[in-house]
Amino acid sequence: GDSAALVDFAAWSRKFPARKTALYVFDHGSNYTRSGDGLFSFDQETGHAMNARNISDGFRGMAKVLGRPIEFFVTDMCLVGSAEAMGELDGSLRFYVASRESIRSYAVSVIDILRVLEKYPGIDAKRWAYQVVLLASKQNNDTNFSAFNIQGISNFERSLADLIEALRRQPAEARLKFQTHFLKECTFPSIGASSSFEFKDVLSCFYSTPGVKDWPEYR
Predict the structure, then answer these.
(1) What is the C-alpha to C-alpha distance for residues 185 and 204, in angstroms, rounded to an integer?
(2) CA pair distance 98, 85, nearest whole angstrom
């Protein structure tokens, strides 16, 4: 439950020089709406856990120790592919592989991740993340693994903020119509034990609102 443990472990790993370094973090995960604070690698026996902020702080510290940025983070944990988790991880790594579903058994192991390197020598982080998603989806097709470009999250947040501000500038009657449509017509399917809104669901609802798809802020 302490981000300093990740940094200490990274410092210890420097005893074994390598062109690439992989860290495997194991155990359960939970999303935000069930626990109030999304958890990574919570241990049911000890009660220890990390949240997205612990992970992010640890990755920043690890990057300083290793002298290079963290390329990508693969999670084989339930329900941690949420918008909230990605927002917390922003700025600490490049690519993030996670599932928005509950995971039954194993979907991807450290051996599977290393086999991608064996099959594609010299593969970059973006392609590596993509290959892991394909592998995880094949192993466990009732999950929803995706690869996220964390560096693009800030751009998305700014664009979404511009769209929301454009809605706020509309006359009261137009805002009321939008709110009515959003609450009554838009549906957000439940994911796993409970659900956060997904980007694609929110955007599809915006798109279905009459007139919004023609706004420059939406485009």
Answers:
(1) 11
(2) 10
